[in-house]
Amino acid sequence: MATIGMNDLKTGLTILYNQSIWRVLEFQHVKPGKGAAFVRSKLKNLRTNAVNEVTFRPGDKFETANIDQTEMQYLYADGDQHVFMDNATYEQISIPADKIADSLKFLLENMNVKLTTYNGEILDVELPKTVELTVKETQPGIKGATANGGGKPATMETGLVIIVPDFINEGDKLVVNTDNGGSYTSRA
């Protein structure tokens, strides 16, 4: 692990700070007219997913964290455990549901994901930007409705509830954006 200072911060860099692992989401060098320069940053805690704004001063030092990402395939749920297989070695691991709770509403069997780890500690399951999910339950579609209407709630096959246009029916396959907690993109 390398020790770096405030001037070495970059978007996407992962650092050890305040006894946790943080990813730099944004940073801005600030040079006030009076006083020393500093860096304003937005950091995401990879253990808790909390996002904090942090100001670094000259002389602040921190270590870079070596994060590993492994291509995995989601196999199945076994009670409270979820089983993933390494696509390269075929090794299987079980992850408790509470560790990947936010990702579960998008996971389907045989889906490929990236597993993010730090020294063997599982930090995150990185999903594809969009997934195709089938509508399990919603109100009947309205003939002649457009995508610009008010929308209605729809429960997807994974239990995720999103707002969809009025013309969507049960059984429709939809493209869902995973970035913002789940939103309707289009029909598949």
Keyword list:
1 helix; SH3 type barrels; 3 domains; cytoplasm; OB fold (Dihydrolipoamide Acetyltransferase, E2P); 188 residues; five-stranded antiparallel β-sheet; flat; single chain
Task: Summarize the topology.
Elements: E1 3-5, E2 14-17, E3 20-30, E4 38-45, E5 51-56, E6 61-64, E7 68-78, E8 81-86, E9 92-96, H1 101-104, E10 112-118, E11 121-126, E12 130-138, E13 152-156, E14 161-164, E15 173-177, E16 183-187
Antiparallel strand pairs: 1-6, 2-3, 2-6, 3-4, 4-5, 7-8, 7-10, 8-9, 10-11, 12-13, 12-15, 13-14, 15-16
Subcellular location: Cytoplasm
GO cellular component, one term: cytosol
GO molecular function: translation elongation factor activity
Structural commentary:
One of its GO terms (cellular component) is cytosol. This protein folds into 3 domains: 3-64, Roll (SH3 type barrels), CATH 2.30.30; 68-126, Nucleic acid-binding proteins (OB fold (Dihydrolipoamide Acetyltransferase, E2P)); 130-187, Nucleic acid-binding proteins (OB fold (Dihydrolipoamide Acetyltransferase, E2P)), CATH 2.40.50.140. It contains 1 helix and 16 strands. It has one helix at 101-104, and strands at residues 3-5, 14-17, 20-30, 38-45, 51-56, 61-64, 68-78, 81-86, 92-96, 112-118, 121-126, 130-138, 152-156, 161-164, 173-177, 183-187. The strands form 3 sheets. The chain has a 6-stranded antiparallel beta sheet, with no helix packed on it. The longest helix has 4 residues, at 101-104. The radius of gyration is 21 Å and the shape is flat. The N and C termini lie far apart (44 Å).
